[in-house]
Amino acid sequence: MKNLQRISILYLTFPFILFCFGWLRLSIAIPISLIIIFAIYQILKQPSPLSTFHFSKTTAFCLLLTGTWLFLSGIGGYAFQNWDHHWRNAVFHDLINFDFPVYYSQPESGPIKMLVYYVGYWLPSAIVGKFFGWSIANLFLFLWSWLGIILVTLQLSNFLKTSAIKTTLLLIFFSGLDSLGVLFFPQEYPTLFPPITHLEFWSGNLQYSSFTTQLFWVFNQAIPAWLCIILLESNSLLFEKQRQASALQIFIWSLCFFFAPLASIGLFPYLLIKILKNTNLKSLIKNTHRPAGLIEKLKLYAKTCGTFLLSAIIVLLSTFYFSSNTAAQTRGFQAIPFKEFIFFFLLEGGILWLLLAPSKYHDPRWIITGILLFIIPFIQIGSGRDFVMRASIAPLFYLMILTAETIFQKQLNYKLLIPIYLLLLIGALTPLYEINRSIYRTYEYYFILDESQRLTTLPQPATKIQPAGRLEAEHPNRLVADEIVSLEFMQGELAENFIANVRQTLYYQYLARR
User: Are the CB atoms for 126 and 92 separated by under 8 Å?
Assistant: First the structure.
C-alpha cells in the first residue's frame, strides 16, 4: 500500500462530496464539486516519497490489533455498544431510510424539522445501506472505520519513526489518571470494582476522554479528527513549497471542521503554529524584486488558490448547516471551584504535561497543549460536557505525540522517563475498563445467554431516553444500543442536539436541497 497521505485526503474528502450532492442544490453542488476535483488534483499530483510502507508481519499484527479494538468498540453491532450508540444508530438509521437531506416534517407553514448534525462520517456507509440494507451498511461502516484507524496508526508510526505496533498500543491505552480520580474522590458511580465501570465520569461534567473512550462512544468525530491531526502534524506533507503547505494544512483543518467542529476548535491553534512556521518573511521580501521570483510566486498562487477557495467553501457551508441548529447557541464561561479544577487538570494530563517540560518547554506545541488543557474546562458551548470532551481531542492527541517523541526517541534520561512510564501504566486502566466492559457484555451475550434470552429485534421507537447510568447494565440482553430507532419520534433537550427547525435559516432558504 502506497501514498498514505493521498488515500487519507481522499478518505476525508469523499464524504464531503456526498454531502454536497445530498444536502445542497445541484446548482451549488456541481460547481463546488468541480473546485474539489481541481484542488484534489493539485494535491495528489505532488510527490510524496515518505508516505509508503511495506506489508510485513508487523503490519499484519497491527491490522489484527486495530481490528480487535474496533470490534470491541461496538461499531457494526458485533460487540457491546455503549449508551451513546443509541443516538449514533438513530442517525445512521435515518440516513439510510430517509432521502437526503433528512427532513422529518416539511409542511407549507410551521416548523420544518430536519436532521442537523455532524453526519459526514456516515455518508459512504449510508449510501451502501440504501442499496443493500442495514446489515451490509454496518459491515461497510466497520470496514470504513477500520481503514480510518489504519491510516491514523500507520501515519503516526511514519511521523514518530517507530513501529506501527507501538503507536497502535499507545493510541489504545493513552489516557488520563481517571482511576486515581475515582480513588481520591469516591462516589456511588464510578467505582474501581467491578473493573468494567466507566471511569471517565469521576469528575462529573468535566471529562477528557481517552482515545479508546472516543472510539467506543463518538467514533464519527474521533476517527476523522485523529486523521486530520496527524495529517496536519506530519513532516511529509505533499507540498514542499511554504504557500502550498499552508494551503494543504488549512484544507485539512476545514475537513476537520466538517466532520467534528468542536474538535476543530481545539486544533485551530496548532494550525496557526504550522502556518507561522511556513511563513518566511525574509525570503518573501528578498525575492519580490526579482522577476523570476515574482513569476514563480504567481504560478504558485495559481496552483494553490483552488485549495484556499475550497477550504473557505467547506467552512462556510458547514457553518451555514450546523448553525441551523440552535441547540449549540449557548456560549459562555462556566465557573469551576478551584480545588475541583486543579485536580481535574493535573490528573487528566497536567502532571504528564509538566513531566515533559525538560525536553519540550521550547516546543510551541507543548506550550499550546498546556494552555488548551488549562482553559477548555471553563468554556461552554451548548449544554452538558460536550465542548470539554470534544475540543480536548486535539490537545490530548498532541500530548500523546509529545509523550511518544520523548519516550521513543529517548529525549530524557531514564530516571526522568520512569515517572512518565508509570503515569502511562496508571492511565491505561481507563481504556482497559472500557475494553473489559465490552468483553464482559459481549461474552455474556454470545456464551451465557441462551437463544430465548437474547434480544435482537428492534424495540418500539422511543420518544425519550434516560441518560446513561451504570453502563455495564445498559440495555440488558442486547448487544446493540438501538432503542431510539429514529430521531423522528424523539422529544426533549437531548433530541435538540440532532433536530432543528430550519425554516428561517439561511441554509434552508438559499442552499438546501428541497
Answer: yes
Cα–Cα nearest to 390, from 379, 403, 402: 379
Q: Hey, what amino acid is at 424?
A: L
504 near 496, Cβ under 8 Å?
no
User: Is-contact 393 221, C-beta < 8 A?
Assistant: yes
- Of 163-172, 407-416, 501-510, the range with the lowest mean pLDDT is 407-416
Taking the C-alpha atoms of residue 9 and residue 230, their distance in angstroms, rounded to an integer, is 12
Please determine, for residue 296, whether its predicted confidence score (pLDDT) is greater than 70.
no
Distances (CA, A) of 115 to 90, 175, 266, 361, 467: 11, 33, 25, 45, 21
State which amino acid sits at residue 53: F
A 10 A CB-CB count for 394 gives 30
DSSP state of 141: H
- The closest of 407, 474, 443, 422 to 162, measured between CA atoms, is 407
Smallest Cα–Cα separation from 432: which of 200, 208, 227, 225? Answer: 200
What confidence tens digit (pLDDT) does each residue in 178-235 have?
999 999 999 999 999 999 999 999 998 899 999 999 999 999 999 999 999 999 998 5
Maximum Cα–Cα distance for the chain, whole Å? 82
Percent of the chain that is helix, strand, coil (3-state, to 5)? 65, 5, 30
Residue 386 CB partners (closer than 8 Å, separation 6+):
262
Residues 163 and 151: their CA atoms lie apart, in Å, by: 14
Residues 275 and 249 sit within 8 Å (Cβ to Cβ): yes
Closest CA to 503 of 21, 135, 106, 100: 106
Q: What is the C-alpha separation between 484 and 153, in angstroms, rounded? A: 33
Strands 331-333 and 103-105, by their bridges, are unpaired
Q: Does the pLDDT at position 87 exceed 50?
A: yes
Q: Which residues pair with 451 in a beta bridge?
A: none
